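Our consortium's second objective concerns turning raw sequence data into structural hypotheses that experimental partners can test. To show how far this objective has progressed, the report includes one record in full. It was chosen at random from the queue rather than selected for favorable results. The single chain below, 209 residues long, was entered without modification.
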Amino acid sequence: MGEETRDDAAARAVRDAADQDALARLRAGDGSAVAVLYDHHGAAALALATRILRSRDEAEDVVHDAFVAVVERAHQYQPERGSVAGWLVTTVRNLALDRVRRRARREGITRDELRHEPRVEPEDPEERLASEGEGAVVRRALLALPPAQRATLELAFYEGLTYPEIAARDGVPLGTVKSRAARALWTLRAALGVDETALRRQTAPSSDP
């Protein structure tokens, strides 16, 4: 990479000044100023998030969240610690890495569930969640679950929380969380037409709602 030319340095100085002005406007409550930052850094932010996540859709979500965070935390920016561009890049990187960690935790939970599946099942319901034509069935089954069971599954599979973390978050015993998850999964499997006889042998109903 060649050295920065005077023209490059001048252009960067102009952009940095515009970034500082946009951030000052955000701190003053002018939310439209985020458009300036997006014009300057949106493409680079998306490229960075895509490299980390290896998914364009997820990267777009992260970039959106990053710019929302910049608007909400504009007052936290400290110029002496770096440029606005550097602050934004750090925000994108942290959000992307957080999503990677949540993804890994969800996959870990799924693997744990698979280890306890009866061998007679032709397919694990978590894997079938993504199958075309079955999404609507699963969504209806989720909506039919008691609120506590539905919330437990959503926290575990979509937010990446572990069962102990859900128990701590909701202030309930760990056994209650596991029971809710087991009963909710049983209901989803039944909705997908998995062998109910085998499932009844595996998961006995409890008194938990």
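The partners drew two points from this record. Residues 117-134, 195-209 have pLDDT under 50 and may be disordered. The radius of gyration is 23 Å. Both points have been shared with the crystallography group to help prioritize constructs.
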